[in-house]
Amino acid sequence: MSSVRPKLKPETPKSVTAWETASGRTVWMAAGGNWTTDAAHIAAFTGDEADAHLARALKQEGVVTDPYFMEVTDTGAIAGRETLRETIRVNGPTVAYGEDA
């Protein structure tokens, strides 16, 4: 499964993000190539290294669902055209629901 997203240039810092298949939680790739639910550990990749990490993530579709690149700064902070969407994924819904409603 894949969604259409903006194509990022090779030199643009990016991270790999997905949904954890078992829980549906948002996950990001950390520096060691492992998945994290903590946005403070988002790793930034460029060029062939980024492509290799995405290729690895695509082979883990039983662990994660719909991995894709998201634009980040050199330090892993959310940036770029998809900033609002990715910020919501990090911080949660913009309206209360469930027990918080």
Any overview of this molecule?
By secondary structure, this protein is α+β, with helices and mostly antiparallel strands. The protein contains two helices and four strands, in the order E-E-E-H-E-H. A four-stranded antiparallel sheet has the order 3-2-1-4, with helices on both faces. The radius of gyration is 13 Å and the shape is globular. The model has no long low-confidence stretch (mean pLDDT 87).
User: Approximately what portion of the residues adopt beta-strand conformation?
Assistant: 15-25%
Q: Biggest β-sheet: count, sense, barrel?
A: 4 strands, antiparallel
Secondary structure class reads alpha+beta
CA-based gyration radius: 13 Å
Please give the count of helices: 2
Mean pLDDT: 87
In which order are the strands of the major sheet placed? 3-2-1-4
Helix content: 10-25%
* SS elements, strand count: 4
First CA to last CA: what distance?
Answer: 32 Å
Principal-axes shape call: globular
Query: Uncertain runs with pLDDT below 50, 5 residues or more?
Result: none
Which sequence of SSEs, written as H and E, runs from N to C?
EEEHEH
How are the SSEs placed, and which strands pair?
Layout: E1 14-20, E2 26-29, E3 35-36, H1 47-58, E4 64-71, H2 83-91
Antiparallel strand pairs: 1-2, 1-4, 2-3
Structure in a nutshell:
By secondary structure, this protein is α+β, with helices and mostly antiparallel strands.
